[in-house]
């Protein structure tokens, strides 16, 4: 495995504080402790292709080297920046092969920023809809509401709150 240090800054820290180059081979429990995760997480990373299958000892135990620590630190750093495991899985082979430079990093970060901006916009729209729905409620407190009356319906291509309409009708 090649080095995975791409200068990504995050709050993920090396748990041991040791220089990964000087770390001896370790089993899965030791690796999990070194990076502050669980053995189940490491097995999952291996299963979905985020972590290369390690060498196996005669007893069948996994044996990891220092590169695994850096690899997992990269995965966790990328997650901290909002990248999904699927997105990280796309990046890792390029990193390992030395084909992931600054232009690729900037492109990925820019795309992630655009994605976050779109999500923020969608959340703002949702918030407006929630506020409008809350402001349109006119039913008396303590009156049970049925599932049917609380269900949104699509009418004439426009989403309207069936509950809000019924509640307004009740208040007339």
Automatic annotation (TrEMBL):
Ranges where the record places region Disordered: 1-22
Pfam families reported for this sequence: MerR_1
Task: Tell me the keywords, alphabetical order.
Answer: DNA-binding, Transcription, Transcription regulation
In which residue ranges is the amino acid composition biased (Basic and acidic residues)?
Answer: 11-22
Enumerate the CDD domains for this protein. HTH_HMRTR
SUPFAM superfamilies of this UniProt entry? Putative DNA-binding domain (SSF46955)
The record ties this protein, via InterPro entries, to: DNA-bd_dom_put_sf, MerR-type_HTH_dom, MerR_fam
Would you tell me the protein name for this molecule?
Heavy metal-responsive transcriptional regulator
Q: Which organism is it from?
A: Cupriavidus basilensis
């Amino acid at each position: 495995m090649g080095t995975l240090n791409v200068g990504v800054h995050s709050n993920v820290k090396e748990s041991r504080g040791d220089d990964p180059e000087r770390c001896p081979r370790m089993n899965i429990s030791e690796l999990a402790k070194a990076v502050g995760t669980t053995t189940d997480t490491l097995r999952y990373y291996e299963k979905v292709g985020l972590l290369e299958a390690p060498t196996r000892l005669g007893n069948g135990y996994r044996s990891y080297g220092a590169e695994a620590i850096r690899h997992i630190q990269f995965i966790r750093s990328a997650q901290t920046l909002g990248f999904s495991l699927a997105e990280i899985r796309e990046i890792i082979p390029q990193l390992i092969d030395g084909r992931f430079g600054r232009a690729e990093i900037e492109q990925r970060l820019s795309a992630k920023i655009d994605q976050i901006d779109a999500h923020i916009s969608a959340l703002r729209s949702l918030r407006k809809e929630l506020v409008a729905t809350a402001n349109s409620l006119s039913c008396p407190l303590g009156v049970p509401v049925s599932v049917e009356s609380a269900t949104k319906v699509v009418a004439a291509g426009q989403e309207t709150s069936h509950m809000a309409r019924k509640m307004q009708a009740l208040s007339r």
